[in-house]
């Protein structure tokens, strides 16, 4: 009985290690696809956000939303835009797996004439810790992932201003 218990514990530990090793995040997805052909990639580091955070207040939209506070709170931004059909399927699968495994909440879904766009957030009623935008339009696939500790009210004000 002891040998069986030890074997089960070892199998469970191996499964957990495999699961942790395959865990996705914005950086993992960025690193996997940023070098592929017909893929545009942008990464903005925490250091760049610190520099940008020193810029005086910046208004967004019709001047009623200040985005400086959000910029100061960001830790990383990963953008992948792919026109490579062989990459798009894998990128979409990995991005969707990422949002599901990270307990992201669907904020918005848009479908229009073949284009599909999903916006997800991670956090609680006070703080947004992550933002993911996935869009698929014919031969193009776009993935945008933002990490940080953004006040939800400020984040929602920027989203609302952008929708106007």
Strand content: 35-45%
The quaternary organization reads as: single chain
Strand order of the largest sheet: 1-4-8-7-6-5
One letter per element, helices H and strands E, the order comes to HHEHEEHEHEEEEH
Structural class: alpha+beta
Can you count the beta strands?
8
Q: Indicate the percent of residues in helices.
A: 40-55%
Counting DSSP H or I runs of 4 or more residues, the number of helices is: 6
Give the N-terminus to C-terminus distance in angstroms.
66 Å
Unreliable parts: 5-23
What is the general shape? globular
Radius of gyration: 19 Å
The largest sheet is: 6 strands, antiparallel
Q: What is the residue-mean pLDDT, rounded to a whole number?
A: 79
Question: Could you describe the 3D structure shown?
Answer:
Helix content is 43%, strand content 36%. The chain has helices at 2-21, 26-33, 46-53, 68-73, 85-101, 152-163, and strands at residues 39-44, 59-60, 65-66, 74-82, 105-112, 115-123, 127-137, 140-151. It is α+β, with helices and mostly antiparallel strands and 164 residues long. The model is unreliable at 5-23 (pLDDT under 50). Strand 2 (59-60) and strand 3 (65-66) form a beta hairpin. The strands form 2 sheets. The protein has a 6-stranded antiparallel beta sheet. The chain has 6 helices and 8 strands, in the order ααβαββαβαββββα.
């Amino acid at each position: 009985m002891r040998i069986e218990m030890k074997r089960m514990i070892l199998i469970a530990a191996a499964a957990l290690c495999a699961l942790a090793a395959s865990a996705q995040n914005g950086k993992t997805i960025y690193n996997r696809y940023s070098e592929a052909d017909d893929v545009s990639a942008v990464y903005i580091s925490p250091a760049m956000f610190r520099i940008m955070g020193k810029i005086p207040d910046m208004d967004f939209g019709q001047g009623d939303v200040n985005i400086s506070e959000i910029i100061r709170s960001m830790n990383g931004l990963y953008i992948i835009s792919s026109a490579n059909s062989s990459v798009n399927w894998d990128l979409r699968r990995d991005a969707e797996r990422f949002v599901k495994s990270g307990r992201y909440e669907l904020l918005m879904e848009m479908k229009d004439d073949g284009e599909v766009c999903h916006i997800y957030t991670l956090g609680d009623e006070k703080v947004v810790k992550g933002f993911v935008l996935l869009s698929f339009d014919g031969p193009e696939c776009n993935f945008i992932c933002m990490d940080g500790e953004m006040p939800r009210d400020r984040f929602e004000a920027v989203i609302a201003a952008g929708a106007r």
